[in-house]
User: What shape does this take?
Amino acid sequence: MMMEKEKVVEVQHLYAAFDEMVVLSDVSFAAFKGEVCVILGGSGSGKTTLLKHLLSLYPVIQGHVSVLGKDVSRLREAEQVDLYLQMGVFYQSGALINSLTVAENVALPLVQHSNLPKALIDDIVYMKLGLVNLSHAFHLYPSQLSGGMLKRAALARAIVMDPPLLFCDEPGAGLDPVSLEALDTLILNLKDKLGMTIIMVTHEVSSILRVADRIVFLDKGIVAFEGPLIDALHVDQPAVREFFSVLDNENMRELISAQ
Amino acid sequence: MRKKTQNSFSRNIVFEGQQIALLDGNVLRLKGNLTMKEAAHFTGTFFRMFKPSKYRYLDIDLSLLSNIDSAGVMALFYIQKQLKEKKIRVEITGGSETVQDKIRLFFPDTENTIASPQKPGWFEHSGNKVHHFFSSYVFGFLLLAANVFYWGITDVFRTRTRRKGEVVNQAIQIGVNAVIIIVFLSFVIGYVIALHSSSQLRTFGANIFVVDLVVFSIMSQMGPLITAILVAGRSGSAIAAEIATMKVTAELDALKTMGLNPNRFVVVPKLYACMLTMPFLIVLANVAGITGGALAANVYLDITPNIFINRMQEIMMAKDLWTALVKSQVYAGLIVLTGSFYGFRVERGAEGVGRMTTSAVVLAITLVILADSILGIIFY
Assistant: This one.
């Protein structure tokens, strides 16, 4: 008997268009609690637009988006803020506030939204930075960090509130394979140890194979495939097949046997 | 059906001594090469000798063609497209395996031709412009103003979460760093006003009124206006550029998804800083301008500083001061709001940042001068 899994993010029949250009058409999918859900697809397939809808940065014009059980189009400002506090967002470019130090950046949500004393906040920040191996950058400014360090700092900021839901926008872009693997391990840890639900936009195949539980494949604004990773490798959908065809057979076999 | 439109004449297309095509009745036979070299000549000659009115269909036979490249394929596509518009059916037949492969590779789907964007008529266009102006500029500006006003007032009471030191930091950038240039320019302008009026006043023997002239023009107009224009130029642009950059690098998105309001977090400290420093800047500008005027009056009209100050005390009123105070607050609000308004509007990366910065300065100066005229009428 399978327990019905809890849907953390649910999108139903979402359409989006800029002027006359349809970017998303009839997109429906769900992400379940405690899973890593990877949204992937080629450039221009609407990944970022979809993500911005999930984050309520774009208004939902047609369709239905619910995040953590709340319909995002019907939130008042205060409810929206409450919802934001339950999710962490890890931006592609890092998006650290340049006028604040790394520590201040990471501390920002804590300072603004909790009553914790300053010393405790500092400790939490130091610990979170340690998680991403960046405690030495405590007092540095974002402009003094390398690209990979920026990303790790951004991840520390995204998880500083221990959100049940974490969004990652292309976490792998611009990272070397070793850092990428470390990042993936961290993401898996967050999932396994904290039970976080992670929604990730990426097209690093190696990273997908390591972390993904579920795949949502977008092709020209349409969901070409949705389901478990293992099914995605066998699915008979040209765009999906083409994407995974970069794997050689040996890799594939290894993975299938591992699963 | 075919019989009726059958054409019986034949003509050659020759390129550099080689026959490359033969129009034989309703069949166009291609020979040899059809590559980038031949394509232009081929299509040109074809359309010159082809009489569309006589045709219902045209077969293009490629069986004698030995080589074709993408330009050649597109030449065929071009012919097909042109003739289709004249209701002539074109069929491309034959060809070796390699020729057919290239045609399959390059020949576009007719459905996917480049659609030229539909241009709205001038009526619709002007309507769109007006609607756009009101919905995004007027309404957007008012919305931002209301939002910033709200956060500006409520934030006074939220001392814990306010960004420490940010107001001071901004006050230094917006206010303190502008002191030297503002004092210098006001001094020069005060001097010039006195200088130019001195020759006029001397002819009437009304030397002493140079004091009235300098004090009034500096206090009620030049001082506040010069300050506002300089601050708009220095800080309006800086604010627009800073916010635009934050938007481009997704910092604003990051603030939002951390549950922080960018207006409160970024704009309000700048508003406080500008509103705090602006009155002091105006006072400094007034003092410098009047000093400049006094110097010129001394040099050209022999009015000693003592006389100047005595006369000044007679004519100055408290109203002049609080008018300047009201003006300073209005200007500060306008400058910060226009700067942030354009900053938030930036689109399409770094190139947009520059454009928005320019627009911000132009609009800020325009609004400041408009506000100056309106306040001038009110406080007349």
In short: The CA atoms of residues 74 and 80 of chain A lie 9 Å apart. The beta strands of chain A are 7-18, 21-32, 36-40, 62-67, 70-71, 87-90, 165-169, 197-201, 214-219, 222-228.
